[in-house]
Amino acid sequence: MQYEKKSDGIRIIGKEDFNPEHILECGQIFRYKKNSLGEYVVYSKEYCAVIKEDNDGYFIKTKAVDYFVNFFDLQTDYSNIKKQLNNIAPYVNEAIESGHGIRILRGDLFEIIVSFIISANNNIKRIKLIIERLCERVGTNMGNYYAFPTMEQFFELDEKFFKEIGAGYRASYLASLKNEFDLILFNNFSAMSSDIARDNLIKIKGVGPKVADCILLFGLYKTDVFPVDVWMERVYYEQFGNVQLTRPQISKDLTNRFGCLSGYLQQYLFYHRAIKK
DNA sequence: GACCAGGGCGGCC
DNA sequence: GGCCGCCATGGT
Known about the structure:
The structure is a single chain. By secondary structure, the protein is α+β, with helices and mostly antiparallel strands. It has 15 helices and 6 strands. Strands 1-2-6-5-4-3 form a 6-stranded antiparallel sheet. The radius of gyration is 18 Å and the shape is globular. The mean pLDDT is 97. The structure holds a DNA duplex.
């Protein structure tokens, strides 16, 4: 897919490998909305972008051009990924067709860690609600929106605050996150294998194997992971599985089969099974 | 009003 | 190591 950097945004040429609805509504990110014109607006860290559709593609209007070139993973060839995932199984072809313009976003590590601690045993609508309240209360006012809290802003907050914004029993996990400051900031996760990085992430309170895999995929861009939640467990037994396995065992089976394509495949399947239907 | 949601923790064996 | 009850909250 081709794109052009402009002074006020990014021009996306073609619609096959870039679909705002599929990218944003597939549960990898929780800070987006539709504006009065029906255009998607997406927020990451302190940045913001509006996605406008035109005849032959899209225009991502933003002041942070380089940030969103990376964020939307525009250097990766998704046609090639879809080609490699083609004809694995009829259901996989179906899923890729229904989520054809999905891209794995390169989110901010800290924002992703917080977001997916909140995501545990929760639903997407309420995850969005809690994160929205978090940003409105402590994020920097950027004019017409609020930034995600910086680590410094976030670590001032206590368990009582997190309960007030509706985090429920995850409040204590969020409040104790400041104790993992060193782990988050000074670990060179990118240089680690996914297995080693996962072992480190699981040390964080509220981060188990599934949340860790989401952090690896959406916050550290490691695609050889397969996050398995209730929906992916259903897909596994409906489409792949035979014997009864734990979720980490399902994840291991699927990463063994699909390697570095795992993260992409998982996202097509999640969108198809959990969101679209 | 029960059931569910991009699960994880602590106690138990 | 694996299993299991419990956990807050908002939507359906």
